[in-house]
Amino acid sequence: MMNRTGYIICISFLAYLFSCSNPVKEGESTLKEIKIPKKPNEGEVAANGMVVTAHPLATKVGLEVLKNGGNAFDAAIAVKYALAVVLPKAGNIGGGGYMVYRTADGKKGALDFRETAPAAASRDMFIYDEDSVMNEKALYGHLAACTPGTVDGMDQIHKKFAKLDFAELIDPAIELAEKGFSVTDYDASTFNNAMEQFKKWNDPDMVLIKDSVWKEGELLVQTDLAETLKRIKENGKDGFYKGKTAELLIEEMKEGGGIIAQEDLDNYQSVWRDAIEGTYRDSFNIVSMPPSSSGGIIIVQLLKGSSAYDLKSMGHNSPETIHLMTELQRRSYADRAEHMGDMDYYDVPVKMLLDENYIADRNSSIDMAKATPSQEIKAGEVERIESLETTHFSIVDKEGNAVSITTTLVAYFGNKVMVDGAGFFLNNEMNNFSIKPGFPNIFGLIGGEANAIQPGKRMLSSMSPTIVEKNGELYMVLGTPGGSTIINVIYENILNVIDFDMTMQEAVNAKKTHSQWLPDRIVIEEGAVDSLVVEALKAKGHDIRIFGQLGRTEAILVRPDGSLEGAADVTRTGDATAMGY
Could you give the CA distance from residue 434 to residue 430 in angstroms, rounded to a whole number? Predict the structure, then answer.
């Protein structure tokens, strides 16, 4: 297989030959004239760079940065701030997230810019009595908010990896906020669905509140957000964590009964971490997010468990394959509840959890003829799964730098509170802690002492930005929203490409399944299987629930010729877009 550098040299030479007989105007790229052949079921294909995000305007912003000489990290910063404007339900400066990266020379790592619990937080702050918790307060309103990490995260990325001036990267977001943009039909529906919550938690003049319904094509101008972004442009992260923006945030906390203080803003710091790595079927190396994310450990556990089986012969979404995946998932998610939390506050047994002998022993009780009751794996009760209100983007530049970033406010529009005068929503990350160890949070995930509330601590997450190498070279960049379903959607996308020979677009489009240990059921995306598969799974002892949508993956695959296939999930709700050049 021709390596990526050789391929780009080849493409550049072809472009030169083309330009000799077809002169172009000064400053006009010749590469855009080259049409790279692709299969009918492939996504966007390009030679020099690819950006895949949840919104076309953000994708365009990222692509322009790449075309103007920026690298994947520059583009990531620009995309993140653009998403804060055009995707307010999940793109944010009031939340946090994770980055997994691989540089062109093969160096890998992760950045944890997850939110932290304020200094005034306490372990039992949402416990009402011995038998009940105050879930609503951990989900809605000011008390649900933790100290935001996004702005510090982008600052850290810029200092370590960026080529371009920060002003050049944030200016597109400022323009989108100041001049406005036409909302999509999907944008309008999210605003309308949240309108009553907006009215409950905000002043009547909040920018998204109106008496009539939002409609596609209407102009959304966000003047307050534009001013906040300008302060960040002028003062870097101090333009957010100090000065006018900080004052507005603290005032919002005081008026609404929240507990974020200036001390919390002053003390916030993102953390650079070693990525979780693990091999799959000899040729592939998985690079994913370490705790405070549970994603990397579980994805590696699931893939190592899968390697003992011939999935290709079993068939995609067959009763046997779905049964096996469910059995593996139940064991890994039980490990999540028992062993995982913020590594800075809890000694997560990473080495044990990734040990092949440990994984094999955990999976040795799998019976391919019948389901293992989850209660036999670990006790507990769960009734719900997490929402989809997170956003992911994947970027690869012409040098081969790769960035995979997932960020969130948790619920859509976070705690529903927009900071008055500052124009951004706050997160509701308090609900991602174990607000009472052993008790399920509103999203249906059980946690233990490892994820109990503690001042300054990061809450456990399922966000799983991931990169895959093949024979030591960049191969795949992917991630998805979807709360507790994120991990399994990433796992299945990897299987779809490696074991089931799908293109990246086919893998993304394929219908998914999900099990998270408890409740004792399999969630199957509508249209994934027929009635015969459902009956076969029931015969093995599984409870089946059909669900409307699982995940919304944004991914990039390096093709055998070195070009890039960008796969935006256009088959599920949203405005995802892939663009390359």
Answer: 9
Question: What HEC string does 452-482 produce?
Answer: ECCCCCECCECCCCEEEEECCEEEEEEECCC
Q: Give strand pairing partners of 434.
A: 452
* Sign of CA pseudo-dihedral 82, 83, 85, 87: positive
Spatial contact of 495 and 311, defined as CB atoms under 8 Å apart: yes
Q: Are 406 and 463 in contact (CB under 8 A)?
A: yes
Structural contact between residues 232 and 166, judged by C-beta atoms closer than 8 angstroms: no
pTM of this prediction exceeds 0.90 = yes
pLDDT digits (tens, 9 = 90+) for 136-160: 898 999 999 999 999 999 999 999 9
CA distance 7 to 561: 7
- What's the token pair of residue 149? 């990490």
Q: How many CA atoms does the CB half-sphere of 196 hold within 13 Å?
A: 1
pLDDT tens digits for range 426-482: 999 998 898 776 666 555 566 678 888 999 999 999 999 999 999 999 999 999 999
Confidence of residue 381 (pLDDT cuts 50, 70, 90): very low
Catalytic positions are 390
Q: What are phi and psi of 163, to 5 degrees?
A: -105, -35
Q: Both tokens of residue 547?
A: 């669900």
Q: What's the distance, Cα to Cα, between the start and end of the chain in Å?
A: 22
Cβ neighbourhood burial of 18 (10 Å; 0-12, 13-18, 19+): middle
Handedness of CA 102, 108, 113, 117 (dihedral sign): positive
pLDDT score at 27: 37
**Token reading at 548:** 């409307």
Q: CB neighbours of 572 closer than 8 A, spacing ≥ 6?
A: 549, 551, 552
Structure tokens at 154: 């982008």
Q: What are phi and psi of 365, to 5 degrees?
A: -85, 0
Q: Where does the pLDDT of residue 358 fall: very low under 50, low under 70, confident under 90, or very high at 90 and above? A: very high
Determine the 3-state secondary structure of 223 from DSSP. Answer: helix
The stretch 340-352 carries a mean pLDDT of 94
Per-residue tokens: 215: 């409609």
Report the phi/psi class of residue 49: left, alpha or beta, with left for phi > 0 and alpha for psi in -120 to 50. left
The H-or-E segment that residue 135 falls in is: helix 135-139
Q: Residue 448's pLDDT is what? A: 72
Report the b/e string of 544-563 with b at 16+ CB within 10 A.
beebebbbbbbbbbbbeebb
* Cβ–Cβ under 8 Å, residues 390 and 408: yes
- DSSP-based helix, strand, coil % in the chain, nearest 5: 40, 20, 45
